[in-house]
Design goal:
5 helices, DNA-binding
Length: about 110
DNA sequence: GCCATGGCTAGTA
DNA sequence: GCCATGGCTAGTA
């Protein structure tokens, strides 16, 4: 039992909350989420959270992209779905998976 | 294209 | 030991 009750590790909790707060039609990068969650170098951990928890927690996983502004998933392994979901929210994505970050980057409000 | 990075957990002892 | 990264560089066009 690595986990108490239905609680996850602190970083994971924060990452999940942040991902859930990305509004429709906006995108954030793995590193951006990691940074705001308090660990700028933990982008990979964010990827892991998305991979393992998106289904059960209904995370808007498609709103997280690479720092280069592109869809990270390989074709045939989520790329098409992510692109379609983003476009359904009004986000322009090229056939190559380049997102129009210019207009759709999530800028969280400071608290 | 390469390689260092961080956080968590499965699974062994 | 996994993971849906990131950033810096070599080397092509």
């Amino acid at each position: 039992m690595r986990r108490q009750g239905s609680r996850y590790a602190p970083f994971t909790e924060r990452a999940v909350a942040l991902i859930l707060s990305i509004p429709r039609g906006r995108v954030a990068s793995y590193g951006q989420i990691a940074g705001i969650a308090g660990s700028p170098a933990a982008a990979r951990q964010v990827a892991r959270v998305l991979h393992s928890m998106s289904r059960t927690l209904h995370l808007p996983w498609h709103r997280v992209i690479s720092s280069r502004g592109t869809i990270s998933l390989p074709r045939g392994e989520g790329f098409e779905t992510q692109r379609a979901l983003l476009m359904s929210e009004g986000v322009a994505v090229t056939v190559d998976g380049a997102v129009d970050v210019r207009h759709h980057r999530w800028v969280p409000r400071v608290r």
